[in-house]
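**Folding the chain**
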Amino acid sequence: MRQLLSKSLLFLSLAAAGTGLSSCSKEGGGDGVVLFSVQDDIDLGARVAAQTDSTYRASGQLLDPKDPRNAAAYAALSTVVNKVLNSGKLDHRNDFVWDVKIIRDDKTLNAFASPGGHIYVFSGLIKFLDHEDELAGVLAHEIAHADRRHTSRQLQQQYGIGILLSVLLGENPNQLAQIAAGLGQLKFSRDFETEADSYSVIYLSGTDYACDGTAGFFIKSQAMGEASQPVFLSTHPNPGNRVQAIQAKAAELNCQNKSDNDTNLNKLKSLL
């Protein structure tokens, strides 16, 4: 805790002095610099995830992974997630906690990630998907936001480093609740979205899934019409060439024609 406090106060001093932006490097492309260390990502993510869990548990929407009645659903979901995580393509596979939780809400088609590798997926999104590689693709996209540290940078841009550090140090519980409540609505920049799309393909290229699975989700979503499109698309910029870019990356890696086994997705749907 003393090391974290000293480090965080150093970053706060840099930010206050206006010198931090020139001394910290960009990580993983995209826009914005990372003032937080990887350990700060882990600690901030743990706080945000605990608050998120508490909020959805209080509303009766969190599908508790510790409840034996949910073991089969989480086993099916974890099989999909672990294929992505163990693809050999992640930068922070061994740094972040990488857990995934289901929020029971059949009307919401969304998924989101906190810093440090906490992933949330709504039951509505799972039931909306037709194929398992689509689920793998959407999860890979969210994993990319955490692994490429987009979420930290976007939160930093939205709230400022001082507020995030106060949350990190446990000094601002009201702000923590606000950040947790808004995480699922966090709007990423086009650069972050383009990179997450690209890395969803890269991650899936190391699995037995068709690596353009995310494109299948977008195609079905766009066919619904703008008024009915999922929350996922309203919070993630969706330029017209997005599907084409995913498919082009898949063609480049020659990984688009793979398994069409939907066993885990079908099992999940039957259990939710």
User: Anything to note?
Assistant: The chain has one domain: 36-158+179-271. The longest strand covers residues 99-103. Residues 80 and 136 are 6 Å apart (CA to CA). Residues 1-6, 8-26 have pLDDT under 50 and may be disordered.
